[in-house]
Amino acid sequence: MNIPIAKPSITEDEIEAVRSVLISGNIAQSKKVEEFEKKFANYIGTDYAISTSNGTTALHVALLANDIGKGHEVITSSFSFVATANSVLFTGAKPVFVDIDPNSFNINPSLIEEKITKKTKAIMPVHLYGQTAEIKKIKEICDDHNLILIEDAAQAHGAKFDGKKAGSFGTGCFSFYPTKNITTSEGGMITTNSKSVCEKSKKIRNHGQERRYYYDTLGFNFRMTDICAAIGICQLKKLDDFNKARRKNAEVYSKKLSKLDYLECPKVSNNKEHVFHQYTVRIKNGKRDQIIKGLEKAGIGYGIYYPMPLHMQPLYLELGYKDKLRETEKAAKEVLSIPVHPLLKKEELDFIISFFEGFK
């Protein structure tokens, strides 16, 4: 067997869409980007969507468009990909880490307020593995303290909290990297109901131009191409079906694997709709390395997201971080993600389950 941890679904639809763009000659940012932005905003349920070159630049631009910079602090999670915290550093602001809820792996809202200072400008929760954070509680904290809410929804395309989609509670940031629930090969998106944030984001991603060759702010070349947008338009049509397949695979896993005493399956709250960007279990009793060796021998793909929390990374230690985040550090030693993507075949799913059931 050779079962990858992730596999993008690319069909003739995407190939023909790219071919049409190439033939048109409009291969940079043009009408396809505008079309993708409008359709993505409509899907998420926001007034605006602004495309960028990738998920990291989406975070960077979103922070800048919300006027976050030097002297500010942004509260976020250390249990995430490095782009989450680095995007804050890019602006000159300081990321402030809060421990996670052990059940969801997302930032624990009950620990946020103790980290708020006079310098705090925003809270940036991460909707990890495809499940939203406790976003309503976090939004209430933002409202009570007059803080900006920025959602790192890079792994949560279509995920819901009380029926409302991730990325629609504050300023949302998405990634379309090939492993995500939909892909554009590389790409990112910002979602917002703020006209001001939208206009600022569009300028920042395009060299700070108000109009061509007139620059009234510092900007970057963070644009998406029509080639990527054409893929994204095709993928967006399939997103709900992709997520449905992920949930179905996750249900099969949970039904079978929950019987095993050496691992814990993902926990999903009743008011959330998980889209299972990753199906992540906890491996108990220090057995993860042993299981990994078995997975490699069996040809089963896996991932550890994330083996070292951000506050323990050399970069952040050099910056003076000395956090002790107990649940975050515990999760980093126990988490293991296994294939859950929509292209997973029944025999592959059964093979993976049999591996865990037969593990001694």
Automatic annotation (TrEMBL):
Transferase as a keyword? yes
Keyword vocabulary terms for this entry: Aminotransferase, Pyridoxal phosphate, Transferase
Matches recorded under CDD domains: AHBA_syn
Q: Which Pfam families match?
A: DegT_DnrJ_EryC1
The molecular function terms in GO held by this entry are: L-aspartate:2-oxoglutarate aminotransferase activity; pyridoxal phosphate binding
Enzyme class, one word?
transferase
Entry superkingdom:
Archaea
- This entry's Enzyme Commission designation comes to 2.6.1.1
The stretch of residues making up the signal peptide is none
Q: Name a single GO biological process.
A: polysaccharide biosynthetic process
As for family, the record states:
Belongs to the DegT/DnrJ/EryC1 family.
UniProt protein name? Aspartate aminotransferase
Species assigned in the record: Candidatus Methanofastidiosum methylothiophilum
